[in-house]
Amino acid sequence: MKDKNQTFSLKLADLLGRIYPHLDSDILASQVIDAFYPAHTHRRKRGRVPGNGQWSERDSLLITYGNSFVDGQHKPLDLLHDFLHRHLGGVIDGVHILPFFPYTSDDGFSVTDYRAVDPQLGGWADINRIGAEFKLMSDLVLNHVSSQSQWFNDYLQGHAPYDRFFFEAEPSDDLGSVVRPRTQPLLREVETANGTRHVWCTFSHDQVDLNFANPEVLLEFLRIMRLHIDHGVRIIRLDAVAFIWKEVGTSCIHLPQTHAIVRLMRLLADYAVEPVILLTETNVPNGENLSYFGNRNEAHTVYNFSLPPLVLHAMMAGTARVLNRWQGTMPPAQLGCAYLNFTASHDGIGMRPAEGLLTAEEQAQLIDGVRAFGGLVSMRALPGGGEAPYELNITWYDAMKGTFDGEDQWQFDRFMASQTVVMALEGIPAIYVHALLGTPNDHDAVEKRASKRAINRHCWNYSDLNALLEDPESTPSRVMSELLRRMSVRRRQKAFHPNATQFTLQIDERLFGLWRQSLDRGQSIFALHNVSADALTISPMSINLIEGEQWVDLLSGQKIHPSGAEISFAPYQCRWISNR
Hints:
17 helices, 8-stranded parallel β-barrel, globular
């Protein structure tokens, strides 16, 4: 037992030595343990061994704001709880409630108080109730804090320890290589009790970056992580984690200390009594994103950020050529790790993850197509000057209105095909509430809130929504009913375990095809998705259906014979052909 404790201690000391080489690792280690394992908790005697047991084919997530549903009478978190039980119980078992803390801007990502629930949403009791019944994900917004927070106010007044909590630089510093997700100036001039200072603002001047070179900042966030865990959170999303460590003269993204901090959090999570999963949010090119798996010692899960722009391209272009090529080169997640697959989210459709995958011409086509369907484009500043598209702002349902040739009659079918792709891929599927409900673009919100992202952050009147969901002909009812039907089918298939074997099929450019095989090798599923408006057929022999097995399309119930007739696909039809 002593050796096991020694292993934890040695790993912790090594990581702290990498992050803070000039400080005493033993003292810091003691402070870290006190922060993450306070008196009311205790640490596991041995860390969790990486494996496939943290999740299963039954797992999926709903992504939603705490106030996606309002009625002017009940707490929004009460309404969310009712929605989860009334409509999703037994089908979707997890929920990511986007930042539910008091805030000043960016719909929650400019936090003023990390230890409180926004009273306009509800309280910790409401979070506890949801966390007791669903796998709950919360955001650790650790790169920045609101400029109107008590932390920043204490910084301005020179009060310890917050006088050293924020990252400062000078306009004369070498900042030309800094990778930016926005276009506004990086530095904000402020007057403090200690004189004029320039604070670092990666995202906006209301979101001031913290200084993780000060270990007190890290310790405070470990205490906040523990608070989340104590309130039932089991998946912690590390928001904008790629930017947390800065060094003037560098890109200030993905620095070695950043990865070491993620490894430290993983070490603590793996020794926690509670089954805590870390998810990194890194909206960057594919190779950079995958680096946050580390060597099975960083994030348990990473967002599959290249998936949304590539699925969007496939649906608009009517060909899976690029999607097939990319998926064929994607590595399986390491043991103890998994992808989080999605198309829509509270943010836009990231363009950085498409870099190196879509040509400049293909990206321009995508941008023109989104604009044609009422969408918007957000830009980012480039190192050395200039701008480039950062994300496409549009609801996913409206993005499916048509193709590069314009609008057509296939919006519903095209949308369903795009979501079925997400369900079939290796990993855990996540669906944004406004995709689940087929919500249209909210241009009024964009104008009222002066934010392009507001186009996909609609607040539903809960009574109106339930009336629509009771009408089988309404878009929200049609979309949600069919999505949940397919999700119900998915969660019963062992071949859709997040770590089940996956092989990309190359059959027809209009088909995105996968072969999935369960971990016990008992079930095979050929997941085939027509991404075009064409009717087409393929031979059963082209997917090597084994004679003597009973094959059936799980989505339609149709039996498929290995030596029988051609397998037909209507426009945007999907088939999950299984041997059991």
